[in-house]
Amino acid sequence: MDLACFGAGEKSRYVRRLILRHSNHRVLYYVEDQRFEKIGTKIDDMDVISVYKLKELYENGVLGGVIITTAYHKRTVQDMIETCIQLGIRDEDVYLIPNKTLVTGIPDDGNLLIPYQKCVQIFQLDIHIADHCNLNCELCCHNSQLVEGEVLVGYEEYQRDLRQLHKLVPDICNISVLGGEPLLHPDLIHLLQITREIYPYTNITMVTNGLLLGSSSPELIECLKRNDIGIAISLYPPMHHRLDEMLKFIKSTGIKASVKRVQKFFKKFSATPKFDPREMTALCGYVMGLRNGRISRCVDSLYVDYFNKKFGKTFPEVNGFDIYDEKWTPIELIHALEEPMELCAYCANKYTSVDTFPWKQASGNISKEDILY
């Protein structure tokens, strides 16, 4: 079968090499829909074409389908899929390359190309190991500013849930271990170690505000390096003056790390269900969450119980799906996670890129009006 790769960068070039190495298919074109200056050029002697040329070649039978690499963000992949469908390319002719295949360079069970509707994969999964935080940003989407005392996940529960999820979804592109503040967990090393053991081909990142990073033990640093786990530092205003210190620490330890300065926050939810759920899911960042044996398409949804406990029931709390429910097949769970939730009607996602608010630490008399859009 002759195919085209959606994208004209290194990711698509890598996919083409995999196709040549592991199948009898041919990649004849690269498709570009963003960087128009590439259209009409050649890469590896292959023409870079527009989506409209792709439509013509497909309709005329020159091409049998399109390949999309899952190395992109879920939103980007979803946009590519939707573009293909709008062009008239049939569902079964839009293929994904699973994450494990991209990492290992070897097709899993011989399945190199998987029609997108049959691909069992999660792009981004967030897992709290500590709900409480040592910074307490007023507009924390995970409601850590409302957590009273220490709330830590137990090792046995954590590894049990992760193993059960692996039975259903063995391929996850990215896992973020976070909170709250993950460096507050006394068993952090073992939690990171078991995450890597269960998901050996996943990109794993620990997300931290960095307040405690400089006092990390040599054992933690060794664990991060041995298990190829990166650190993502959210540098909030109280930590901005410590940027040079953070960079020096990263260089001296040799850990993989990124630093993002955060100046402003947004308000995630409205007090009433005023939005169209499907419109909100079209804008969604697709960051899924795992908590207490449940998986949700929206990690924030798993922590609205803290808001309801503090201010009275405002949001629906039954979010996500029980991963221990025997009714789930892998593909049925993936499809269920694509559907809007009741909470989506409260999501103010469409305004968060417009209306932002200065960072502020939560006060003792925080009100729900401080948090809600």
Question: Outline of this structure?
Answer:
This protein has 373 residues and is of the alpha/beta class.
Key descriptive features of the protein:
single chain, 373 residues, alpha/beta, eight-stranded mixed β-sheet, seven-stranded mixed β-sheet, 17 strands, 30% helix, 20% strand
Question: Shape, please?
Answer: globular
Could you estimate the helical fraction of the residues in percent?
25-40%
Distance between the termini: 51 Å
Radius of gyration: 22 Å
Main sheet summary: 8 strands, mixed
Write down how many β-strands occur, each being a DSSP E stretch of 2 or more residues: 17
Q: In DSSP terms, counting alpha (H) and pi (I) runs of 4 or more, how many helices?
A: 12
- Percent strand: 15-25%
Spatial order of the strands forming the largest sheet: 12-11-10-9-8-14-15-16
Describe this entry's structure for a reader:
The protein is an alpha/beta fold. The chain contains 12 helices and 17 strands. The chain has helices spanning 10-22, 51-59, 74-86, 99-104, 155-168, 188-198, 218-226, 243-253, 277-282, 304-311, 330-338, 368-371; strands at 2-6, 26-31, 42-43, 46-49, 65-69, 94-97, 114-115, 122-130, 172-179, 203-208, 229-235, 257-261, 264-265, 288-291, 294-296, 321-322, 357-358. The strands form 3 sheets. Strands 12-11-10-9-8-14-15-16 form an 8-stranded mixed β-sheet, covered by helices on one side. The chain is globular.
